[in-house]
Design brief:
Elements (H helix, E strand, L loop, with lengths): L27 H12 L4 E5 L3 H5 L12 E3 L5 H14 L6 E7 L1 H5 L2 H9 L5 E6 L36 H6 L5 E6 L3 H12 L5 E6 L3 H4 L6 H10 L6 E4 L3 E4 L8 H5 L10 H21 L2 E2 L1
Parallel strand pairs: 1-2, 1-3, 3-4, 4-6, 5-6, 8-9
Antiparallel strand pairs: 5-7, 7-8
Length: 299
């Protein structure tokens, strides 16, 4: 992993996300939280609905996030963040970033209504989805972020998920918000740059961060960053940004690895036939080509 500027000359005791937490080994959510809070220089309020993040942060009165944290019901991360935002602004605080921090279950599914109505008003907040592609905190049930042919406890062997992953960036872009982006913990410089770009952009911002869950993905904890990197290198999870719902900037991947290289490290895809892996490969190739055609800039 590259060394990012937020780790240089950092005292871990003063970082915005402290050492030690209740996460499973190898959890991508904690890597993402550390990067985001350091990118915001610790000047943030975090709103967390029911999700792994609400547990990982610690039991009251303890918290590993060294910024104010407000826990809220599953469906209300965005709307609660809007309330916090207006409270701070009424007090004259125009510098603190209000962050809604939710998993894919609370973003793609349960929290989508509140998210849509909040960004439609272009509230000046940052919504972060740490995307581990299932309802991990409640037992690894499928969400609409779960990828095609993935195992979960509600899509068991013999009845794997038949639908592809929902495109949440397209949904956010359709609201014409100022900024939306896809990031992952395997490329920390890219992640930090996108969070800082979001911070400096007025209005609603959305960043989706792919964050592997070794428990739900049935992968080795030591491989979380490698798997994240392979997701990008195989075009399963492209890195891109959309400005004002229109201008799309894509990170190019001229020499992609086969999707099978990404899938073979995860038990949730074990047992797939060669034909099923090829089906996923065709779906990924098609989505990548469509994204390239839409891109206004490829970097």
């Amino acid at each position: 992993m590259q060394t990012t500027d937020y780790t240089k000359n950092k005292d871990l005791k003063t970082e915005s996300f402290g050492c030690g937490n209740l996460a499973c080994p190898g959890c991508g959510e904690t890597i993402a939280m550390r990067g985001v809070l350091n990118a915001l220089d610790g000047d943030a309020v975090i709103v967390i609905p029911a999700c792994c993040g609400s547990i990982i942060d610690g039991l009251f009165p303890f918290s590993k996030a060294r910024v104010p944290v407000l826990h809220t019901p599953f469906a209300t991360a965005a709307s609660t963040a809007a309330g916090v935002l207006h409270g701070l602004r009424r007090r004259g605080n125009k510098h603190t970033t209000v962050v809604a921090w939710a998993g894919d279950g609370g973003t793609y599914d349960i929290g989508l209504q509140a998210l849509s109505s909040t960004v439609e008003r272009n509230e000046d907040f940052l919504y972060i989805c740490y995307d581990n592609e299932a309802y991990m905190n409640t037992g690894i049930q499928r969400s609409s972020s779960t990828p095609l042919l993935a195992w979960t406890t509600t899509t068991p062997e013999g009845d794997l998920k038949k639908a592809p992953k929902k495109n949440i960036i397209d949904i956010m872009s359709a609201h014409r918000i100022p900024y939306s982006a896809a990031a992952t913990v395997a490329y920390p410089d890219d992640l930090v740059a996108k969070v800082r770009r979001a911070k400096s952009t007025p209005g609603s911002k959305f960043v989706n961060i792919l964050a592997p869950c070794p428990t739900g993905w049935k992968s080795k904890p030591s491989l979380s960053v490698k798997i994240s990197r392979l997701a990008v290198r195989s075009n399963v999870y492209p890195l891109y940004e959309v400005f004002d719902g229109e201008r799309l900037v894509l990170r190019d991947n001229p020499d992609p690895v086969p999707v099978g290289k990404y899938m073979e490290l995860q038990g949730r895809f074990h047992g797939l036939s060669e034909q099923e892996v090829e089906l996923v490969q065709r779906h990924v190739d098609h989505a990548w080509e469509q994204l390239r055609k839409r891109a206004d800039e490829i970097i």
